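Input record (one chain):
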Amino acid sequence: MFLGVMVLLMGVVMLMEQLGIIRGDFGDFIVPIALVALGASMIFDKKKKC
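The corresponding structure, as predicted from the sequence alone:
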Protein backbone atom coordinates (compact mmCIF):
# COMPACT_ATOMS: atom_id res chain seq x y z
CA MET A 1 0.00 0.00 0.00
CA PHE A 2 2.80 2.40 0.88
CA LEU A 3 4.47 1.97 -2.48
CA GLY A 4 1.22 2.61 -4.32
CA VAL A 5 0.62 5.82 -2.37
CA MET A 6 4.16 7.00 -3.06
CA VAL A 7 3.85 6.37 -6.80
CA LEU A 8 0.49 8.14 -6.89
CA LEU A 9 1.71 11.20 -5.01
CA MET A 10 4.89 11.48 -7.06
CA GLY A 11 2.83 11.27 -10.25
CA VAL A 12 0.54 14.04 -9.03
CA VAL A 13 3.49 16.26 -8.13
CA MET A 14 5.14 15.64 -11.50
CA LEU A 15 1.90 16.49 -13.30
CA MET A 16 1.40 19.67 -11.27
CA GLU A 17 5.00 20.68 -12.00
CA GLN A 18 4.51 20.14 -15.74
CA LEU A 19 1.27 22.15 -15.73
CA GLY A 20 2.97 25.03 -13.94
CA ILE A 21 0.82 24.78 -10.82
CA ILE A 22 3.87 24.34 -8.61
CA ARG A 23 7.37 25.58 -9.21
CA GLY A 24 10.64 24.01 -8.23
CA ASP A 25 12.62 20.89 -8.78
CA PHE A 26 10.93 17.51 -8.38
CA GLY A 27 13.63 16.56 -5.87
CA ASP A 28 12.43 19.30 -3.55
CA PHE A 29 9.15 17.44 -3.09
CA ILE A 30 10.34 13.85 -2.63
CA VAL A 31 11.09 13.97 1.12
CA PRO A 32 7.85 15.72 2.18
CA ILE A 33 5.79 13.37 0.00
CA ALA A 34 7.58 10.36 1.46
CA LEU A 35 6.94 11.56 5.02
CA VAL A 36 3.25 12.25 4.38
CA ALA A 37 2.75 8.91 2.65
CA LEU A 38 4.60 7.02 5.37
CA GLY A 39 2.58 8.71 8.10
CA ALA A 40 -0.71 8.05 6.31
CA SER A 41 0.28 4.44 5.74
CA MET A 42 1.05 4.00 9.43
CA ILE A 43 -2.28 5.53 10.45
CA PHE A 44 -4.34 3.39 8.09
CA ASP A 45 -2.46 0.20 9.02
CA LYS A 46 -3.19 0.75 12.72
CA LYS A 47 -6.89 1.24 12.03
CA LYS A 48 -7.07 -2.08 10.16
CA LYS A 49 -5.48 -4.04 13.02
CA CYS A 50 -7.94 -2.86 15.70
